[in-house]
Records
---
Amino acid sequence: MSSLELTYPWLLLLLPLPLLVMRFSNAYKTKKTALKVPFFKTLIDTLNEKPSEGASMLKANLWQRTLLVFTWICLVFAMTKPTQLSAPQLREQLGRDVMIVLDLSGSMNEADFVDSEGNKSTRIDAAKHVLQDFSASRQGDRLGLILFADAAFLQTPFTADIAVWQTLLVQSDTGMAGQSTHLGDAVGLAIKVFEQAEQDKSNQQKNREKVVILLTDGNDTGSFVSPIDAAKVAAVKGIRVHVIAMGDPATVGEQALDMQTIDRITQETGGQTFKALDKQQLDQAYQTISELEPQLFNSTSYQITHTLHHYLVIVIVLLYLSAFSLSLLIQKIKTRKTSKHQGEQHV
């Protein structure tokens, strides 16, 4: 609901000023021409009058007085600079840009994750379930999603629409990007997406924090950019990388976890490394990340101000133009009537 405020309310004290002027100042007098006669002294002696200076006072009509009073009130209120405040509006400022980088290699189909009830699920299903809970708690953050295996591709650009992000996450599945693990390319793509988003942001949004949460269950198997080099670039760009290593670190071969490289990535970017051998540990990893990256959601309320003093000035001008035009019209009509009446008498 809008409200009306006066910027200089103390100027309302000027309202009674015309009354003070009328009370303590002399009235304006207009001198008129007089007829000079040689027998003036004889005339005043006969009438027994004392001569004095003569003057006539102009008296305003009722409508003129009303117009003057209304004009003065409008003028004083215009000087107080009245402003109208709009209804409060809410401005929401998003906190962080969080990019989820999810491994879709063939090993993510391993059904070796056990929940608290003893039910087994694949690594990818466990990751999706935990990511849905994690995303639901990130009010104010913009989330993105990168999927990688033989290659990395952007599944979801940064968005504050969590429901859309979750839908696209559910549609992701292993085999969409191949069977191997190009970890360095995935980090490199995340850096590129952050740079593109930085160009599209307004000045007020460019200081938002940038976070990557990387979930993988294997080592890098042939990226164009090594994971450590990509991590160094991310550190320069101010991007923090947290890595969640899924699966058994004792695994050997292509699916073995390269914990040395993973630790180096997080050390270079200021992130942390988490090991998740089951769903409980995966839940705990995302809870810890939520504590490390608390919400930065901020909302501010503001009101738009509209000044109204110019409308009062316009009203005053229009009133005086209307009054002047009406006065001229009445005077012209009276002149015509007088001329017509004199013409009839002459006839």
Note: The chain has two domains: 3-87+304-346, 93-300.
---
Amino acid sequence: MNFLVKYWDKILILFFSIVVVVLAFSFAIDIKAKEIIDDSLAQAIVVFGSAKALNAVISLAQGTELDLPFLTVAIGEVLDPINDLIEQFSLIMLASMTSLGIQKILMAFVTNKIFNIVLVFCLTVVNIWLFLRFKKDERVRSLFFKVTVILVFLRFAIPFIGFVNEVTYHYFVKPEYNIEKLNENIVKAKDEVSKVTNETIMQKQQSSFFDKVVEKFDSDYYSKKVDEYRDAAEDSSQYIVDLITVFVFQTILLPIIFLLVLYYFIKGIFNIGR
């Protein structure tokens, strides 16, 4: 009993070390975290593909010109702002997919067998040092302890960020910014723009010479076509802005916060005892 009272702190560290080793080699947390990152990456790729598809149909529509006497109405002028936004969104999605790819690499690194063996070795040495002391070992022991704490932090913090992303998205972000629904709306907008473009092309091809002459002087026809394109792409800007908000928050802002926490954690650890 006296032994437990005297060495309770060392016994607690030993128990904590055993729990860390069991969790590290059970991979229960890691499997779920990897699934979350893989699903997020797959979702990002799908959204990126939808945005590029919308960009393609808008680019096609931008080549459509409606010729009035003494005036050319370019449909691209109506769709230019949306297309510019999509191009910026594509860059953000590339950054998001890169961030998720880096998270996959880091997950593979901290769940690697070699990393776990190094972690177990460090924990074993630290626990031995708790009960056995050597001459003039203070500096080495302190450094070894700090490195071990950082390894434990990395081992579980990187998988943990996947769970943080999952929880924040499902409970705080998804009610307002549902990625699946926003992506469906982007696809619908793409289909609408494509439909209007195809109808315009078909109408030009099937029009008789007389109809083409009439259309040349029919301002209502041009106004209607411009309105059709505007209506087809009207809401897509808002959908894209919403998607930018979600992906910047999930894949850029949260990892930056994690890096800041990691930086100050390591800085704090190495400032202990100074």
Note: The beta strands are 65-68, 71-74.
---
Amino acid sequence: MKFSRVLAVCLAVVAVLALALAAPAHAQSKPAQANQPRVYLLRGLANIFSLGMDDLATKLRARGIEASVHSYVDLETLTRYAVEQASMGKRRPSPVIIIGHSLGADAAVTMGNRVSAAGVPVPLVVTFDPVTAMTASSKIGKVVNYYQAGGSGKAVSGPRVENIDLTGSGALSHFNIDKAAELHNRVIGMIQRPTRPRAVAAKPVPKPVSAPADSAAAPVAPVATPAAAPSATPATTPASVPAIPAPAAATQSGAVAPVGGTETASAPSAVPTAPAGTGTSN
């Protein structure tokens, strides 16, 4: 009886600990999900000429980015839906990204203006060849407009707009600019916003140990001095005159051997040197 009670208490303690450990992990996953952007793509006329939006949405979903495709005529209802979804059950609204082609590009700018005015962050709007001269709100983080000034496309105005004129870009036209694979890759890169690699601190290079001087490395043989020749006259050199140092002994090859203790070898200092240091679809 006593054993069963002890076992029950132990199981209860284990269950409480398991719940306590699982709760923080669950709580930490929510902010990460809330910060993920939601992408809305808008097709143009008749909802059939902008199938590049479908292709781009498929590429985004394959990378784990939530994306959906809509008709430009759904602008009103889609704007309300985007604001509600971005704010539902969240302390801070999640960001909304809008992409459109042709009439869908016009609607993308309008939708971006309205969603950002509602307090929902709109970090990016991308337009493919809009057919109306639109003005983007300063509340939108950035607007990138791929267009062809020589065709149906129009530039977008606004303080944070980048207009990229693709008039001379090969076979691009209003009907296939939204399908260009290179432009898709650029847009995906802007949405993913890859993090820059952090600089790794270089490890300190140890200083080389200085080589010992020749005089300390090996003993130097005493310098042989020639025997003094007998002088016919007695030495008269006064004691105050300093003696002249004896010449170095010559080797058999004729080279003069260095006098010990005068030559030192300095090791070269090892200094490390730094290495020298997108397009389109409809």
Note: DSSP finds six helices and six strands in the chain.
